[in-house]
Amino acid sequence: MLIGMPAYDAVDMLDVAGPFEMFSWAGLAVELVAEKSGPLKFRNGFSFNVDKTFGEAGAWDVLWVPGGDQAALVKLMSDPRRTYLDFLIRQSEHVKYVASVCDGALLLAAAGLLDGYTVTTHWAFVPCLKGHPKVRVADGYPRYCLDRNRLTGGGISPGLDEALMLVQLLMGTQAAQAVQCNTQYYPCPPVTSEITPATECPLPPTTIAPRKTTTPR
Amino acid sequence: MLIGMPAYDAVDMLDVAGPFEMFSWAGLAVELVAEKSGPLKFRNGFSFNVDKTFGEAGAWDVLWVPGGDQAALVKLMSDPRRTYLDFLIRQSEHVKYVASVCDGALLLAAAGLLDGYTVTTHWAFVPCLKGHPKVRVADGYPRYCLDRNRLTGGGISPGLDEALMLVQLLMGTQAAQAVQCNTQYYPCPPVTSEITPATECPLPPTTIAPRKTTTPR
């Protein structure tokens, strides 16, 4: 099985790396693609390489959309060519699961792929998702939310729990337990804290270019 | 403050990326170095780039040694030039904390930097550490173990808890809480499992080249 991750400049490192690590231990192949092949940077400056373009993507079983820097999200969502959004739509039509982690959910929502689904995102971006009238936002701050074949994760570190959930969905509980054991994923943070609910979407108002119904898909 | 990570081919992705993400949210700079600059691959094939060589490393406050593929570890430990091990020794002399995650502890132990300390590693590599007569291995499978200025982590995912602990040590509890909140690090794995204690070190017997006392340091 093949998990596909569409990357972009200033994507979040752990949104990609956490799930990539978990999937690899499960024996699931992960394909990283971007609009153009070549070097990209994570939001924190770490430089990585993408070998394949969107056009070279294989036959994915799962579409996994990572979150990233706010300006990067706005750029992808407001792109009049709709390169990223339309790629998500095309890939979504053939996969078993459409997944996002963190504010990657905003990209799925902008593509219309969360309409009619109950979903979650990073706590700070809940007000942004609530701006989509057809999207139902799960109460509280779940690690992830599964509604039919939409699996959406909370912000950044929830990608680990969510990836393990996806392994369980695709391969069963024993496979997920083996990954948990190999990655020693029995977490225990040294501190505790609480989330203060966000009241405003931190993104500027973003115009999403309409789909051209004549665009070849 | 500057956290230094000496990378190598087939290093583990999450050993690097998990802590890198946590440190970045704390405002701690992270410097990735390798024997040679250029592209390297994580153990799972993900390609990344290193800009600086060992010789170009800055003044680090923390030495953070990631684990990786077994063959890669053996290669670094048995290298007659001792390039990696001697770099660890040199850096250890000036930092506030010497840290490892996963089987990165075997590299520190091979460099003699864990002699006299109580430490931990990935559960599967506990028998390897026990082969070092001067190293005390912590009971059980703690997420991390702090003994004076040695901070060693369990295998792979414990790097997240350990990195948060390091943020707390360097910057205080409030800083660690802020990182926890921003990364929504309130983990809750969807499955449970248990570790079966390892009885044998999975690495082949490895000869560590002796230090040349005349080597310029």
Kindly, what is the distance between the CA atoms of the first and last residues of chain A, rounded to a whole number of angstroms? 24 Å
- Greatest interface by residues involved: A-B, 54 and 54 residues
SS strand fraction of chain A? 15-25%
Largest sheet features of chain A: 7 strands, mixed
| Share in helix of chain A | 25-40%
Our Rg estimate of chain A from Cα atoms comes to 16 Å
Biggest β-sheet: strands ordered side by side in the sheet of chain A: 5-2-1-6-7-11-10
From the 3D structure, determine the CATH topology of chain A.
Rossmann fold
CATH class of chain A: Alpha Beta
Oligomer: homodimer
What CATH architecture label of chain A applies? 3-Layer(aba) Sandwich
- The residue-averaged pLDDT of chain A reads 96
Q: What is the CATH homology-level superfamily of chain A?
A: Class I glutamine amidotransferase (GATase) domain
Low-confidence stretches of chain A: none
Number of helices of chain A: 7
Order of helices and strands of chain A: EHEEEEEHHEHEHEEEHH
The figure for the number of domains of chain A is 1
